[in-house]
Specification:
This protein has 283 residues and is of the alpha+beta class. It has one domain: Jelly Rolls (Sandwich). Helices cover 22% and strands 17% of the residues. The strands form 2 sheets. The protein has a 6-stranded antiparallel beta sheet. Bound molecules: 2-oxoglutaric acid (AKG) and fe (ii) ion. The site of 2-oxoglutaric acid has 9 residues, from β9 and β10. The site of fe (ii) ion (FE2) has 3 residues, from loops.
């Protein structure tokens, strides 16, 4: 880590669990992403659409199109991480979460998965999401909701939530606490092309899409300070690391991702996957 230049945003990320950089993607990139994602959305099966109805879709992005490689290594995003003090981030995965018109809300959850590791109680986010929206978002069309501070502090809602993205969350009923309003929740309305950075430990959800227009979110997962993570986490991560770009790719589209891939060559046993925050979060 280098000292954060953007100390205001760094403090917001550390204290509240998120921060926003405006206008990170340009119009050409937004158009390219819209075209490539529409193609993927059109190929979904009815079963997938039903299973992931709360997320809208859950499509893993990799090298289906060169525009995705450009997104994973988007220079302005890497600059934003650098401004927060993270000069050597690694990229893990990416997903297209696209709410069709009149889609239900997304359940409260946190996406961190190694709660037994000591870094889970620390100030530095072990893992962050970089979320981009392809349309402006609002409470009407499914913008993000967060409960600030819950990445490091336990609240009663934690005790009511099943592990994220499991059958229990996929099959939950609309009257479950998973969808309840919370007095401390904050709406994170974003403009198309803004970058929302959040700690993987933060409790977040999304409003329903009550409009006639699709709301697409691209969520990219990074380790902002990969070097600083334990060997056990690195061992887990590198086992499931993204593939290097295929060598038949032309030009620099694939090569730009290579420096972001998280490698590990030690012999530590992989961390245990555990999505239950347990005692790690202070009350
Ligand atoms: O769709 C969104 O706004 C957020 C999605 C999300 O947090 C997830 O699927 O883990
Ligand atoms: Fe999430």
């Amino acid at each position: 880590m280098i000292p954060a230049k953007d100390t205001l945003r760094y403090r917001h990320l550390v204290d509240s669990g998120y921060c926003v950089f405006e206008n990170v993607l340009d119009r050409e990139m937004l158009d390219g992403l819209s075209e490539a994602t529409e193609h993927l959305l059109a190929m979904q099966s009815p079963e997938e659409m039903e299973r992931y109805r709360y997320q809208g879709s859950n499509i893993q992005l990799s090298y289906q199109h060169p525009v995705f490689a450009r997104l994973f290594a988007w220079p302005e995003a890497l600059e934003s991480l650098k401004a927060l003090g993270f000069d050597e981030p690694k990229w893990w995965s990416a997903f297209l979460l696209s709410k069709p018109p009149h889609a239900p809300p997304l359940y409260w959850h946190q996406d961190w998965w190694a709660w037994d590791d000591p870094c889970s109680a620390g100030e530095i986010p072990p893992q962050v999401f970089l979320m981009y929206y392809l349309t402006d978002t609002s409470p009407e069309n499914g913008c993000l909701r967060v409960i600030p501070g819950t990445h490091r502090k336990r609240i009663p809602l934690h005790d009511e939530l099943p592990a994220a993205h499991t059958e229990e969350t996929y099959r939950a009923n609309a009257d479950s606490p998973l969808f309840a309003r919370h007095p401390d929740e904050v709406d994170l309305a974003a403009k198309a092309g803004d970058l929302v950075i959040g700690d993987a430990r933060l409790l977040h959800a999304a409003h329903a899409n009550q409009t006639d227009r699709r709301r697409s979110c691209l969520t990219l997962w990074y380790f902002p300070d990969y070097e600083g993570l334990s060997d056990a986490i690195k061992a887990f991560v590198s086992r499931k690391k993204p593939l290097a770009p295929p060598d038949w790719w032309e030009g620099s589209a694939g090569r730009i991702v290579e420096p972001l891939i998280p490698y590990y060559s030690g012999s530590e046993a992989p961390a245990v996957f555990n999505r239950n925050p347990g005692q790690c979060l202070k009350r």
